[in-house]
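A quick aside before the break. I want you to see a complete sequence-to-structure record at least once, exactly as it would be stored in a machine-readable document. Don't worry about memorizing anything.
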Amino acid sequence: MTASSTPFPAGFLWGAATAAHQTEGNNLNTDNWAAENAAPPRFPERSGDACDSYHRWQEDLDVVAELGLGAYRFSIEWARIEPASGYFSNAELAHYRRMVQGCLDRGITPVVTLHHFSSPLWFRQDGAWTGRSAVERFARYTEAVLPVLEGVEWVCTINEPNMVSMAEARMSSTPPSPLVPGAPALSDAAFDGLVAAHHAAREVLAGVSGLRSGWTIANQNVTAVGGADEAAARVRASIDDRFIQAARDDDFIGVQAYSRMLIGPEGLRAPRGTRRTQTDWEYYPAALGEAVRHTAALVGDVPILVTENGIATADDAERVDYTAQALAGLRAAMDDGIDVRGYLHWSLLDNYEWGSWAPTFGLVGVDRVDFTRTIKPSGRWYGEVARSNGARLDDPAFLEELVR
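That is the input. The structure line, written in tokens, reads:
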């Protein structure tokens, strides 16, 4: 695609994404906070104050608006709203309602996620997604947040349930064996609970006029190398496909893609001699286009919303290079007839990446002491891509102008 190319379709959503636990700070009642502050802690670093977005959400929305982005994905923190089982905080419901209204007042489309990895500690202590009352409790929570969602068009029920199922498998007292050596294993019991909870939440949300609901899948782009097609197919079916297929009747499906997973004859294979990101993932911008095509092949005419795509890098020019290539692959898939409604970059802010502050995914830097937000050149670049609806995607002089 060139600078003079046809833009993306009219009404295409351009935005950025965050998650509550990674940005809000002091999320005291979650299982993640408990794990981070255990003795000894289970993660190398704590979320702590995070980006202080709980108090600075208006500033974050002003940055979204300044960049010219039309959508903002954020999550509602279940542990704040229901800190004890059956007790719902009116103050916290009002807080998230103000965030939704803040988006609407700025002309920003809110994309709200109900569960983004962190759960109330009481939910974890009662079995989490494998607990007997998990589905009922998630549906009850969804009912409680309905007043928050007035005017919201896009709701993601559960973020990356396949990653949640992997985490549940690792925490199990009898972890399941991987399908091939080195590949992740998933908890089948968690899969069943997550799917049932997702469908129960969708039933609650179905009564809200104008609201679309779905869930978001972390596409691993499982790829066979060295003739390991059968092994790769087994892994793909387990960690990606069954979660994608569970969305066949949804209003949309969220596609999230960053890299790929290589499966060889001896199992999981790390790519040799390839460019890597701060998270040690292969630098692979084609992941997004491939994930969108694979998802569309499984869900048919269910609309797709790219709810996450980005790169952990300290090199801002590399972020632009990666994102431009990813968007070119996305546009090629759309030109082939795949119904994609929007692209939400991960992430708006450099934030807490589930155990470490080292990976920097943000379009905006955040000072760890005074929380000052600083828009990076990649953020300015992406904002202009959004303002032009993609027409400036491949303008070779544009980033140089911003840097100067």
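Two observations worth writing down. Residues 13-403 form a domain with the TIM Barrel fold (CATH 3.20.20.80). The chain has one domain: 13-403. We'll return to this after the break.
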